[in-house]
Amino acid sequence: MKKAPLKMTKSNRLHSITNTVLVVIFSIVIFSCSKDDDGNSKPIITDISQEIKDLIYFQGDEKAPTVLITIPGGPDTEFATDLVDQFSGLKDILTVTVHQAQTLNPDIVAGNDITLTQASSFNTESIEMLSKVTTYFKDQGRTVYVLGLSFGSFVTQDLIAKKGIDSADKYLIVTGRLDMNDAIWQGAAEGRNGFFENGVTPIVEADPALDVKDRNLNRIGAGFLMNRYTQLFNTISDLSNVTYIYGAIDQAVGSLTTSEVQFLESKNTNLIAGPGDHDTTLENFIVQGFKDAFGIELQQ
User: Fold this and answer.
1) SS3 for 55?
2) Cα angle at 168 between 117 and 278, to 5 degrees?
């Protein structure tokens, strides 16, 4: 396990980290992620089926041996493709993002307030789509990496919890939480925004968001934030294929607590920790994260 020093906005809708990555300009220096050749026959990699294309946005060679699935910040109704475009220059890698229920059908969060139960059901649909895509590429014998940023961290964790640690080969989780403070997810379930003062103290706004879509997107977030991932991961003996980056003063999701850190350490997770906030954690450590998690070296 490595632990290196690291250097929701006023909302529990975690958009900002997706935009932040766009100001960090990368060029690829070294890439090494091929599987060992054991001499056995391998499944044939073909062009992507139309059924899968209907669920994704992608850049790169459709027959690339490695697939990087990016899960951006949010939640939102817009199908965010920025991360795919940003990392589209990676050699021999197909870069992908997958629809979520509310991006495939934005009407589900428009018009009327939804319940937390409905939000959780929509999230289950999102995980099923994500799992369908990861399984499709894994079944072709490709190496699959998952990058979850901010809100995408919770989606990534839910994929692992519901579909297993072997859903992908390696994971990079940036600015997430395992056990979100009750006040934050309960406030989000009521459509209210929340944040963390100094990355520690949860603050929830008194009134729900004015727009129904914003209230419902908060509930989509709550459907993931309410989960206790230390409990859901407890049956997984080893998380050494997960690299987890977090900041001490993360205002959007809060810093990992001592118990969360100890849990990840007990599962051999590769931890990268430091003093930054939500955005600077990404800015300062995405390069190290790619190297540690995927064996890909990027030059800033």
Assistant:
1) coil
2) 65
